[in-house]
Amino acid sequence: MATVSQFQQTLTIYTVSVLLIMTFAREAAANRNMGRNQEDSIARSRSFRRSQNTFSRYYNPGSPKTQQRSKRPNIILVLTDDQDELLGSMSTMTKTLKIMGQEGIQFNNSFVSTPMCCPSRSTLLTGLYPHNHHVYTNNDNCSGTEWQKIHEPRTFAKYLSDAGYRTGFFGKYLNEYNGTYIPPGWREWVGLVKNSRFYNYTLNFNGQKVKHDDNYYRDYFTDLIANDSVTFLKQSKQYFSDKPVMMMLSVPAPHGPEDSAPQYQHMFENNTQHRTPSWNYMNNSDKQWLLKEIKLMQPMEMAFTDLLQRKRLQTLQSVDSLMEKIYYQLRLLNELDNTYIIYTSDHGYHLGQFGILKGKALPYDFDIRVPLFIRGPGVLRDTKIPNIVGNVDIAPTILDMAGLAIPDHMDGRSMLTLIKHHKQENNVRGDLVFPRRPWRNSLLIERGKVTMKIIRDLNREKDDQLLKEQGGQLVSYVDTNLRKTLKICADPSNQEPCKLGQRWVCLKDHKGRKRAQKCRNYNRTTTENEYLPDSLPYGRYVPRAQELYTRNKRSPMCDCSQRNKVKGQSRKGRRNRRSNAEEQLMLRKGMIEYQLQANRQRCRYLPNNTFTCDRELITDPQEWEKNKQQLDEMIEETRRRLRNLKKMRIQLRKQKKIEKDQGFIFDINDSEEFEDDDIEPTNVVDNIGGEIVEEAVDDCNCDEEDEEEEDNVDYFEEDTFTIPTELSNYKPNHTNYDEKDSEEIDPYKHIKGRKRFDCDQGDLKCSIHDKNHWKTPPYWTLPPLCICSNAVYNTYWCLRTINRTHDFLYCEYIDSFLEFYNFKTDPYQLHNVIKTLDYGIMHQLHEELDDLRRCVGWKQCNKGQEDNDISQKRRRRRKVRKSKLSTKNRLEEYS
After folding, report:
1. Known active-site residue 117
2. pLDDT digit string, tens, across residues 52-76
3. pTM of the model
């Protein structure tokens, strides 16, 4: 029994030992596996961190050891060119509407201070009205000396750059920017030289001029702006991660020449959103002078507006893709929630509104209203603010976004004030926001420059109108020169044509106004030597030949018996002799050459293809203005002649020439023209008999029948002249297109280069649109169009007002014409209701407009009226705060 019990004990001990050994072995194996798993997990985490660091080095700013996000926000401003708000352009940009509209705030009453490119952009950059930065047109002071010295160093870019922002500009700057310098404040500069183009342009790339061709993949300007801006953004965040970025992307779309990218050229074929109720509206008798002169659009012109609308929308699709590219790049860089994005345009556009085919520069809403979206930190999503804002507020808003103080000289205010107060319901009344400092109710719209020439012309017209109302009686307060002119014209002996011994002659200019001229060189009996340039009058006013001279009547000095009669010679054949029109042309040539000679004394052409002028001409403003006006008139006069030459050349190609032994005879019966060079100045070749016949008295009109027949011929349009040497290299920029000859003559054949012909019609400013305007499909295949979109006196000052009770536009034109449109009852500005206003209201509007025209700084330019209900609530809250504060002070005193 003892042996069995010992065996059982030994077996039990052995079993327990085996179990313990197996348990320890399993635990050891488990520990070893756990160690391996930990090592694997550590290795995997290290590998993930390496891959994450590689991703961050490519996409995120800085290295993982030194990466530090900027505390101040980034700012991106996207500016389109000529984008409308009322013709449906934004509705086709679905990506932009999602990024900016659904995730940001829209200011649906945003306007520009002037509907012109360069003045509007100058206002956007400086925060100043045009009357303060003195850029009134796309020419005068547009990137000029005053702009570069005074206003360019005070743009928002300069303030941001001094505050540590990395600033970059990409796109179109100003219309007259020549690319010779980099404006202050921009660290990265990709600026377009001159005006908007999509292909074949020149850029200033950080000080170096780079030319681009017409290859889409390399040169399409909108895509180039997108690529360069994204590269600048990534590099800035990679190497300067602690510095904020400010970029301005100024795209050319949808400005002309409206060349779209290839992938969008099939879109919007039947888009007619531009056909608003004011489209081709012709009841414009109550509107300004320009709209009264416009005629009803024809089917070809209607088709042009449809095609232009289509091409404009196509160009904006590239901007839509640009916005998406910027958006996703900010997401990759983890900077989207720390970036303000502003989207707007420099002004609006019209396409057939009131019959004007295309253009801008009008004070109506389709030209001055622009889209404006803002998104960024602290900005509500999918919100609209109807308070009136303008591009004058862009620069102060950008400075406020950067946390900088807004200078007092800026005329605008920060729109962040409206955005912040919109979050509080007690500051919103209806849809309008009422901040503590009242927001403006009215915005100034101004366009054009007032010159001395315009003032003189307007004063002359006013005097003429006054005399007309007085029945032609001389009034003491009328201009002295005009009274003298009327006194001369009242004398029957001073009527045209000039006679022997006559001192003055009364004439009419191209506007039908009376003018008094001396007869010293207009006398029909003067000798030929008197027609030399030295004896011609020199002055600012150069009247037209057909208005200065008329065909001579019979004079006592004429002796028709001395006229040689040749057997078989017809009356029409005698037109080969020197006519009155030839005298007119010779005199006009002399006048041009004389004025050129006079101007050569002030400005001289040097051998190195440069000009130099007298110092007095540069230092004296009056002399400079006088010389400039003379040059402008000579240029206009020469263009007129060149247009006649162009028509002459077209007609000569159809002309039949009959060659004879003694020379050429032109068939006058077929109304064919002849050139001035084919006729001797003093003698006439009589081809019948081959004799040279001296005209003893060639200034006499001995045949009344010839006079009647010649009255039906426009000699000025048919004859030509010798161009002065200074103008010999000038190329004509106009041709008169005759529809009757459309099958025989190609109207495009004489178009050289991209410069289009001039088709100005008096005081209307017009341009020709032809098939060479667009380089990408869809093309314009119909005949050329003369498009008149502006006028000489289209200078105005307007008051655009929006508040809880009013929504109107009040305008004063330089010719004293007034307009008033009530948008509550007339949203498309079809009826001018200025005559329905009381005198007191008109006087109040005039005073308010006059104050804005002279305002300087935001305190003077932003006078608003606080809402009564909200002001009462605020006064109550202030009283409650004061009472609580006084109670607290009393308790402290007792304690």
Report:
1. yes
2. 444 444 444 444 334 577 889 999 9
3. 0.65
